[in-house]
Amino acid sequence: MKHFFCLLAILLIHNVNAQMSNKLLEHTIAKKVSLIEGENGRWKAIYNDTPLIILTDSINDRMRIMSPIVEENNLDKELLKDCLTANYHAALDVKYALSNGILWSVYIHPLSPLTKKEVISAIEQVHMAAITFGTTFSSTPLLFGGHKKPIKIKQKDSSSFMRT
């Protein structure tokens, strides 16, 4: 009887931690978005009027959820700097990235360890980073620092920051 409960516990843990697959990813996304279309590993979706593109590479165990924001030629140096700053402080699990002349809000993650909860969070964060571009540049209400005025820190020895 004792072995039965141990076996049952192992089976339950395995089912809870089932690996993410394209089929499970599509099913999870479809529950969250208003529209999803495409084929295995390549989908277009709409979440709260925000267009999403979801791509997977099951051979290399990678996935990304992304949303186009603006063409690169419409960005100035200050906006690009704000995006880089946000990548550190305010765009938590997503990042602003340039590719093929487009600025994107993008979430990139290994596919198999991804959980349903992380997929939902990724969709919400990609959406938030896209719609807050130009204002708070944030993917969630949570921010890590990001002061406009630099904070003066007394540096002991600059050599401690050098690579060896």
Question: How is the topology of this model organized?
Answer:
Blueprint: H1 2-16, H2 22-32, E1 35-39, E2 42-47, E3 50-57, E4 62-71, H3 77-89, E5 95-99, E6 102-110, H4 116-131
Antiparallel strand pairs: 1-2, 2-3, 3-4, 4-6, 5-6
Helix pairs in contact: 2-4
Short description:
The chain is an alpha+beta fold and 164 residues long. The protein is built from four helices and six strands, in the order ααββββαββα. Helix 2 (22-32) packs across helix 4.
User: What oligomerization state is this entry in?
Assistant: single chain
H/I helix tally: 4
Give me the secondary-structure category: alpha+beta
- Write the CATH fold name: Yope Regulator, Chain: A
Please count the beta strands (DSSP E, at least 2 residues each): 6
What number of domains?
1
User: Which CATH first-tier class would you pick?
Assistant: Alpha Beta
Rg over alpha carbons = 20 Å
Unreliable residue runs: 149-164
What's the order of the H and E elements? Answer: HHEEEEHEEH
Helical residue percent? 25-40%
- The CA-CA distance between the termini, in Å, is 59 Å
